Amino acid sequence: MKIAVLPGDGIGTEIVAEAVKVLNVLGLPMEMETALVGGAAYEAHGHPLPESTLKLAKEADAVLFGAVGDWKYDTLDRPLRPEQAILGLRKNLGLFANFRPAICYDQLVGASSLKPELISGLDILIIRELTGDIYFGQPRGRRIATDGHFPGAEEAFDTMRYSRPEIERIAHVAFQAARKRSKRLTSVDKANVLETFQFWKDVVSEVGLQYPDVELDHMYVDNAAMQLVKAPKRFDVVVTGNMFGDILSDEASMLTGSIGMLPSASLNSKNQGLYEPSHGSAPDIAGKGIANPLATILSAAMMLRFSLNQEASALRIEAAVQKVLAQGLRTADIYSEGTTRVSTREMGDAVVKAL
Ligand code: NAD
Fold first, then answer.
1. Is the shortest distance between the CB of 14 and ligand 1 below 6 Å?
2. Ligand 1 contacts CB of residue 83 (under 6 A)
3. Inter-residue contact 216 to 206 (CB < 8 Å)
4. What phi-psi label fits residue 185: left (phi over 0), alpha (psi between -120 and 50 degrees) or beta?
5. Which of the residues 135, 183, 202, 349 is marked catalytic?
6. Ligand 1 pocket, 69 CB below 6 A?
7. Which ligand 1 atom sits nearest the alpha carbon of residue 282?
8. How far is the CA of 193 from the centre of ligand 1 (A)?
9. Ligand 1 in contact with 281 (CB < 6 A)?
10. Which domains occur in the chain, in start order?
């Protein structure tokens, strides 16, 4: 099993180190190779996704990714910004399906901003399409300046588009995921206003005819945003486009207490995947040893499950995480009175010990 390890910037290096430690104690035949990505790669090679990093990622069975970005790169021309590395990896590896589970662990019910009864037992899965939508539409607003800004311009625009095959393949992934869970799927759109999303709704419904055992419902994105905080347990699997998915998955993630707990997987049609925490590089806490490594450790578990066919090891990691939470160990972001505050490294060590 070949794994490309791309820690990236900010807290990326700190949290990935803990996930690697956890993977190493499983005793599986894994080969892990590390490479620079994001701002770190820009500093060393003048590009956020150097050829050598891309080659490593393409040849691997899976990519374990930390996070990229720092405010200091905000004035760079857009193609050189750290975040472009993720878009480049998604594009080059054909990663079109982003899985973001939002699970509320019993021990963290109190860390949520919602009432315990609304989120206790919450276990939803948001599936976001990654390759289409307004992020990749053409034409895009004309660039007047090279620093990514538009001094003196009167307008800027981006075009929303989806093709039938793009919608069909994400719909199949979503129906199949729903089949393995409660057999309920909600497709989120904005069909009342946007043609692109009327098309989305029609194609998802058509694909749904092949999955008569899955109950499909459609919801407008504004209502979905509201329902997620009003009655989140009404959802099981949610499928949506790139932009709505970006926003709703962050909203869903916060229901569970901390973005530091949430893993994610981005898969292509061969089940090759990129696994990363849902959060960014957190420059505000980088280097302090206080970042929560659990989202990255849980992403490593998803990697074992989806790309490496090691379900038993994935379950072991997830059980170990539950165990350290039950022991009352907390990084600063999930700390509450009566629990024990630990550092990034101590949290990783505790998961290793639990394993
Ligand atoms: P962020 O997710 O990095 O941080 C948001 C807040 O959550 C911060 O207060 C941070 O301290 C906290 N946080 C995040 N992860 C945490 C963890 N593991 N433990 C404890 N606290 C944690 O989002 P941001 O501040 O908007 O962006 C920072 C940089 O990250 C930007 O350059 C942005 O572009 C980039 N970014 C990268 C990715 C990615 O690499 N996939 C995703 C989102 C943002």
1. no
2. yes
3. no
4. beta
5. 135
6. yes
7. 3
8. 32
9. yes
10. 1-96+268-355 (3.40.718.10), 98-258 (3.40.718.10)
Nearest CA owner, ligand 1 atom 16: 260
Active site annotation includes 190 = yes
E strand or H helix at 173, and its extent? helix 164-179
Residue 275 annotated in active site:
no
**Residue 7, ligand 1, Cβ within 6 A:** no
Does 14 have pLDDT greater than 70? yes
Residue whose pair of structure tokens reads 């430690």 in the numeric block: 21
Residues 6+ apart with CB under 8 A from 176: none
Strands across the sheet containing 215-220: 31-34, 2-8, 62-67, 273-277, 263-267, 97-103, 123-129, 237-240, 184-189, 215-220
- Total-model pTM: 0.89
* pLDDT at position 51: 97
| Among candidate residues 277, 314, 298, 272, the one with its CA nearest the CA of residue 56 | 272
- Catalytic member of 123, 202, 236, 246: 246
Does residue 74 have an active-site annotation? no
Strands 273-277 and 263-267: antiparallel
Active site residue 222: yes
Question: Residue 42 and residue 25: Cα distance in Å, rounded?
Answer: 32
Determine the pLDDT at residue 214.
Answer: 98
Please tell me the predicted confidence (pLDDT) of residue 336.
Answer: 84
Using the structure block, give the residue that is written with the tokens 């093709």. 163
Give residue 143's identity as a one-letter amino acid code: R
If you average pLDDT over residues 159-171, what whole number do you get? Answer: 96
- Token duo for residue 47: 């590009």
